[in-house]
Specification:
The chain is mainly beta. Helix content is about 15%, strand content about 40%. Strands 1-2-5-4-3-6 form a six-stranded antiparallel β-barrel. It has a six-stranded antiparallel beta sheet with strand order 10-9-12-7-8-11. Strand 4 and strand 5 form a beta hairpin.
Length: about 200
């Protein structure tokens, strides 16, 4: 479980294809604190650490993860938002994030608000999935590339988020432009409520 509060951006240093899987090797400041089998969120995707060498660690993404997320688009040198699993003895600064990406969305607008930014994202709307909670609501929570954010101007197939300078500079939001594909995880509480109401 995660909170959607990104710790830093890790740099992709190597990508190895093995059958339908991809092994990603990354470098970040807390590699020396990681352990094999530990879960780390990468752009909001929960992946298991499978190898550690020096200041680099490796995780593996299988075909389903690659198909449902933007990880398959990563290149060596790209920055990835990373967050270690949440400690249960601290404050929940973001919201409950599982690290299970629901789908991707495309950035369709980026507006400079004289320091802060407003991003608009569009995703594939499916009425039946929306009834199960796969949607956004105004002032609700959504995870974009692993970042816990508040939804603004929610529509059936799009929503906006406002990004303060700190988040813009310290996550990979500064790399997002119109056309960039991002990972979405909808609010798990909304999914449970929608599921209970459908029974």
């Amino acid at each position: 479980m995660f909170s959607g509060i990104v710790e830093e951006t890790a740099i992709v240093t190597r990508i190895v294809d093995e059958n339908s899987n991809k092994h990603f090797t990354l470098k970040c400041s807390f590699t020396n604190e990681l352990k094999i089998d530990q879960s780390v969120a990468h752009n909001g995707v929960c992946l298991t650490v499978v190898d550690i060498k020096g200041d680099e660690y490796t995780v593996t993404a299988m075909i389903e993860t690659l198909n449902k997320s933007n990880l398959g688009l990563l290149k060596v040198g790209d920055k990835v938002n990373v967050e270690r699993s949440m400690m249960m003895n601290g404050r929940l600064d973001g919201h409950i994030v599982q690290g299970h990406v629901d789908m991707t969305a495309d950035c369709i607008e980026k507006i400079d608000q004289n320091g802060s930014y407003t991003f608009t994202f569009r995703y594939s709307f499916d009425r039946e999935m929306a009834k199960k909670g796969y949607m956004t609501v105004d002032k609700g929570s959504v995870t974009v590339n692993g970042v816990s954010l508040t939804v603004c101007n929610s529509e059936n197939d799009s929503f906006q988020v406002n990004i303060i300078p700190y988040t813009y500079d310290n996550t990979n939001f500064h790399q997002i432009e119109v056309g960039t594909k991002v990972n979405l995880e909808f609010d798990i509480i909304g999914k449970y409520i929608a599921r209970m109401n459908s029974i």
